[in-house]
Amino acid sequence: MFERFTKGARDAIAESREEARRLGSSSVRPEHIFAGLASQPERVAGWVLSQLGLTYDAVREQVASLPHREDRPVRGEIGFSPESKTVLKLALTEARRLGHNYIGTEHLLLALFQTGDPPIPELLQRLGLKMDAVHELIVRELAAPGRSMRRRAGPSLPTLLAGLEGDARSNVVMCRIADPDLGAIDMLVEAGVRSTRSEAAAWLIHAGIEGNTALLERLQTTVSEIRRLREQAQTISREVASGESPPPPSS
Predict the structure, then answer these.
(1) Which residues lie below 8 Å from residue 229, measured CB to CB, with a gap of 6+?
(2) What is the rounded distance in angstroms from the CA atom of residue 68 to the CA atom of residue 86?
(3) What is the pLDDT of residues 173-232, one digit of tens each?
(4) Which CATH number fits domain 7-144: 3.40.640.10, 1.10.1780.10, 3.40.630.10, 3.40.50.300?
(5) 27 pairs with which residues across the strands?
(6) How many alpha carbons fall within 13 Å on the CB side of residue 56?
């Protein structure tokens, strides 16, 4: 369900589940998603909200003040309400509208403006949020040079892209990676450096190879020697296996 979501968007969704749990709700509702977005100030949506004077604590306070909460402990995984599922679908629409093939926090924030399900319209109005202003800030932030780099620690983009001159790929590799590595891949996608996770991963792998050429050349020499010794040992083994046993000594 969240394959196209960036790490920031997934983190926001995870926080929205916790927000729903803290408020005793049996499902994740749009207001919880809103609070989850505000909890990620280093991501686009959270940054936009902070630029408009909204902090995570302020958003949480407004969400907690909403009526019709179910004040009871909730155990197990919390699912999404029908209204929240609509928000997730609208986020995909917003991503396509902006020409993106991923879903980030910015798309989720814009999707909240598209839903008419209460209490979101009233909540956004109470907080003084207008879609035009939010959309303008999002577009400006996405177009800002070095946007991802200035809010995320990591190597500079020129370093990551050094030596990446070819793009012909015909091999497929599947592997499991850690969250920080996936975050770096999503960063390249969000920045528009590459359009898919697969392409971003290929760029990073190639950058790693180009950045360690000297080491790989030494390893190649060592591996070549290992192969030569292995072939020599195999040749000796075949000769011994195919040869006749020497006759026993005469008594």
Answers:
(1) none
(2) 20
(3) 777 888 888 888 888 888 777 778 888 888 888 778 777 777 877 888 888 889 888 888
(4) 1.10.1780.10
(5) 79
(6) 16
